[in-house]
Each structure stands twice: as C-alpha cells, then as structure tokens.
Amino acid sequence: MPELSPRRRHLVLAICCMSLLIVSLDVTALNVALPSMQRELDASTSGLQWTIDAYTLVLASLLMLAGSTADRVGRKRVFMAGLTVFTIGSLLCSLAPDLDALVAFRMVQAVGGSMLNPVAMSIITNTFTDPRERARAIGVWGAVVGISMAAGPLVGGLLVESVGWRSIFWVNLPVGLTALLLTLRYVPESRAPRARRPDPVGQLLVIALFGSLTYAIIEAPDSGPGTVAPFAAAALAALLGLLWYEPRRDEPLIDLRFFRSAPFSGATLIAISAFAALGGFLFLSTLYLQNVRGLDALHAGLWMLPMAVPMFLCAPLSGRLVGNRGPRLPLMVAGFAMTASAVLFAAFEAETSDVTLFAGYVLFGIGFGFVNAPITNTAVSGMPRAQAGVAAAVASTSRQLGQTLGVAVIGAVLASGVGSSPYKGVFVSAARPGWWILTGCGLAVLVLGMLTSGSWARRTAEHTAQRLESPEVREAAGISA
Known about the structure:
It contains 18 helices and no strands.
C-alpha cells in the first residue's frame, strides 16, 4: 500500500472507526431493548441469550476466515462487502416478525460484521506503520467502543421508548451507507504480497467448536445434561480436530506458532476473559434495571453512563500508555478495576444501593476502558505485516468468543437460579454466582496481564517472531521475502 499523507491516514482511521461504531452501537443498544423484546416476542431467558449470541457466535466463527480472505483478495473489497451485508442485515432485523426470524437475521448481520472489524484493524495496521503512531490509532479505535457504550444505551433507550425496539436497527443504515461511500472514495486497496489458500476444513471445525459449545451452555438449564452432552462432545472433538489438523497444513487458517508467543497467547486469553465479563455484565445489568427496578429503557440507559463515560475517557489514555510504556500497566489497572467491580456485586450486593451500584459501574468502565488497546496492540505487534489480517482476526475472534461465552454462561446461571420464580423476588440471589464468575474473569485479566508482559514474555515473542521470519515459515505462511 502506498505511503499516505497524515491527513489521509487519519481519514482512513475515521472511516474504519465508523464500522466499529455501528457494530458496537448495535450490541449496546440491543441490550437495553432486551426486556421490551422479551415482552413483545414472548421470549424466554434463553431466547434473549440467542438474540445476542446468534450474532456474536457467527461473528466469532467467521472472523479468521474474513481476515485471511481480506489478506488474499483485498482488504478494501472485503470491507465494502461487509458494510453492504451488515446494512442489509440491519434492515431485515428491523422487519423481523418473530423471535426465530430475528435470530436468523442477526446471523445475516454477523456475516457482514465479520468482514468489518478485523479487516478495518488490518487496514489501520498497514496504514500506521510507526509503532507509537499505531498505538495511538488503536487507542482512538478503543475510544469508539466507549462512544458506543455511552451513545448506545441512550440512543437505544430513547428509540425503544419513543418508536419501539425495531428502530434500534435503523441507526445502522445511514452510518453503514456513509462508511461505504467514503471507503469507495478514500481507502486504498491493500493485500498480502502472496495469496494464501483457503482452509475449509479448519473453518468448519471452528464453526463446529463455537456453535456446539455455545448451544450446550445456553440450553443446559432447560434441556438437561442428556440433551446437551452430544453438543459438548462435538465441541471437544472439534477442538482436538483443530489441534491435530491445523499444524499439518502448509497454509492453515491460523498458524498455531503464533501462540508460542506469551504476549500473543496472553492477549487472546485476556480478550476472552474481559469480553466475557462485558457480555455478562451488560446482560445482568439490563435485566436488573428494567425487570427488577422497573426502569424504562431510557432511564436504564442513563444508568449505564457511569460505566460508559470512564470507558470512553480511559481508552485513549490506555493507548498512549501502551505506546509509551508498554501493555503491563494498562492491563494491571484493567484487571484490578474489573475485579473490584464484580466483587462489589458478588459479595456486597451492590445492586441494592444507588451508591454501590454507581461505584460498581464506574469501576467496570475504568477497567474495560484500559483493556482494549493492550489486547489489540499485543496481538498485531511483532507479527508479519503480510498476516496482519489473520493476527487482528484472532484478537477480534477472542473478543466475540468471550462475549458469546459471557452471555451464555451468565444467562444459564441466572436461568437456573431464577427458575419459574418472579424476577423481583430472587434476582439478586440468583445473579450472585454469575457475579463471582465475573470476578474470576477480572482476576484472569490481572494475573495474565502480569505474567505475559514481563521480560520472559518478551523473549518468547522475539523467539516466535524469528521463527515466523525464517525462510521455511515464510514459505509456509505465504509471505514473500
């Protein structure tokens, strides 16, 4: 890709951030609409889980395919296709007649979404080649998540109260179309120097792994172990199949050598833990604020601001810290704040007091605001630029898988605790095991952040980079010399 002027580079960054905005805005706004959708569509707790997880599941399953395809056929081309499909899927979601159709159309949305975030990150990585400038750009990218967190609940709540939950999907239409036109005009085409062959077997194994695991978790409270056991077994078989098959391919879907780098492996696990915490946190908070406290969607959205504002403010600060001092400090701050937030709910029933509820939301917003930039920067730094799409897709896949598992696990725990009882009477006690799980997610971010950002971890990253740069690995990865 030719060297761009600073103004053009920042315009490309803004266009890429628009794709992240519509994807993130869609998720946060939809969470506020869950109780309204539950009433109108007569949905169970598992039905609500599927409206979120059908999207994140398909997204997680296809992200690596989208990243490698973009490296092969052109990042701009795949990015534009993603914007088109996502916008069409949003329109279909707004017209869904029932829950089953909504879940199906959410999957269409996800097919488009899978071509947006990892490809946009790959475009940014190839546009901002200076490490510090790239870290700052990724900080801006992370701040967009904060913007969506702030705007999503408010916009979603306002739309749900004034028009209805279907109007949430209308927001994506003008933003998607604008981003599509700007991409066509201003984003240059780029691709890997040498095309990589598709890996259909690896892709099918990824879909089988994620799909079977999510189904087993979500349906366990209602269907029982006898029904979900085959799906759990299928997930295990798919995982073992991936571990056996992928290293034997010359051009795998994902080169497992990446995971010999402790920072890269740590970033993957931290992303799963942090986004599992986000998915579970939003799911529990939305149902509590509306179904237990009886708030309408708009006021529930306002209650999300103590979480959204710190997230928005801390994300660019985290990006600057990563650029100047490395990922260790932001990850420690993130892990400590997210753990403290979850402990407030798990041990002290923070929901029952406005003061502790406010404090819990602020702490989680600080923690999540600091976690995004070090995840992304660590995932793409040190990897060959020719495989930027694949490396970025692993980070994005980890995020979506984490959010999928967070909603699935926390929703299943909540459904088991609530049973057939009214939400208001048992919600706080039924949610407590879920909050302890989120405490574990925060501790995982803290411990992994410390272990995978020291001198030993850096040595493993350097060793992995040398192996990836060797002639043999270059040829296997499809990277030109």
